Amino acid sequence: MTYPETNYRTELNPRVWQALGAAYPNIYVYDPQNDRYLDIEGNPVTVDDAKVEKYGDRLRNFPLIEEQLDMLYWDQVNGTTVWKDTITKIKSDFPIS
Asked: What share of the chain is helix, strand, coil (3-state, %, to 5)?
């Protein structure tokens, strides 16, 4: 299962918040009345949409943890490297830096 593409400003699924948190670890909460993100002290955090999308693109392509654990199990049983190959390809196709 993968999460659908979302607008991180209006939808709050776990992968969206994960992307936002990866791009901006200082974000604490979203203020919907003013359409802004705040840090732990209540200060506004300027968010670059392109940066969040970059993280989001990468995260949307990772298999869910349950699927990754299954890959790891079968890699151990079969002596294969499916999990490592999958993660390496995603990191290569969607670099962060």
From this structure: 50, 10, 40
